[in-house]
Amino acid sequence: MAMNGPFADDFWKACEAELETLTDDMDAWDVVNRTPDMKVLPSTWAFKVVILAAKERLAAVQYNTTTASVTAPIPRSGVCGAATTIRSRNKQCLYYDMKQSPRYFLAYLTEKLQKQGLEPLNIDPCLFLGKDLLAIIYVDDVLFYGRSEDAIDELIEKLKHDDVRLRKEGTAEGYLGLKVERDGNKTILSQPGLIKRVVEGLGLSTKFTSSLPTPAEQAPLPRDLDGEPATGCFNYASIVGMLHYLNHTRPYGAFAIHQCAQYTFGPKRSHEAAVKRIGHYLKGTMTKGLVLDPIDDLTIDCYPDAEFAGLWGHEHPQDPHCAHSQTGYVITLAG
Description:
Radius of gyration: 24 Å
Strand content: 15-25%
Shape: globular
Distance between the termini: 47 Å
Order of helices and strands: HEEHEHEEEEHEHEEHHHHEEE
Helix content: 25-40%
C-alpha cells in the first residue's frame, strides 16, 4: 500500500538510501545473484511519515543509528544472521531479531558515548548525561539535547570519527509528534496531528459529528460481562494505544483512557461507547494542550485522591473486581 500511496517516491528513495548505506558506505554486505537453490526469507519494509514542528529553544536533534547496530562488534558466541541475496562479510554480523541484540547494541553505544564524557544514569541506562549535553536512546534512535546546536554537532562529529554512523532525522518535536508554541515564558504543548488520527480512526471526522465537554461520564466503567458484544466498528486496541500517547499533553484525560484500556482484550459495546466519547471530546478540543506557565517559586505540590470500592453496586457483589479501590495524583513543579 505504501509504495502505491502519495509518498511512494520518498519511500523508494528511503529504501535505496538504506541499502546503499549497508552495501556502499558501511561495506557490510556483498550483493550476490540469486540462484534457484536459494531459499529467500520474507521481509517487510515499514514506513512512517514524520511531520516536523517548530524547533524549541533548547537544541534537540534526533539521529538514527540503525547502521551502527549492523556493524557493532558482537561476541564470537553470537550468531550472525544473513539475508539470502545479500551476504554478510566475515567481520560484520547482522544481529537483528536476535534476543541478545538489544543488549549488545546498548553496550556498544554506551561505550562510544562514555568516551565522549556522557555517563548513563543508574536508574535509567538509556539516559546519558554530560557537562553540556544529554542523550536519550530508544531502540536505534537517539535524541541529543544541548544548550546549542553547535555543541550537538561537535559531539556528532566525534562519534562519527569513532565509527558510529549516524543520520540526522529531525527535531525532538517531530520525533514525539508534539507541537510547541511559546508566548513569553508560557509554553503550550499540543498534539493535533495525533488527535486527528484518533478522530478519523473512530469515524468521527465528518462535520455532522458533535463534540462533548468532558472525556467521560460520571458513572464508572464496569466490565459489563453480560453486555452486548463489541461491534468492531473501529480497532479498539489501536485507538486506545494512540490515546495513551496523548497523556503527554492531556494528563487530565488519563483516568478515562485508563478505564477503557482495562478492557482492551475483551471490550463490550459499552466500552466502545466510552472510547468514542473520548473521541467526541477530543474533536472539540483538538488545538488545546498542556500549558506550562512556571512561577519563580520552585516548589513541588502534590494533589492525591482516592476512592473506596468504586465499582461496588456496578458489578456482581461476589466479583472481587467490584471491591477494587483506585487512587491517583497530580504533581506540579513551580506552578
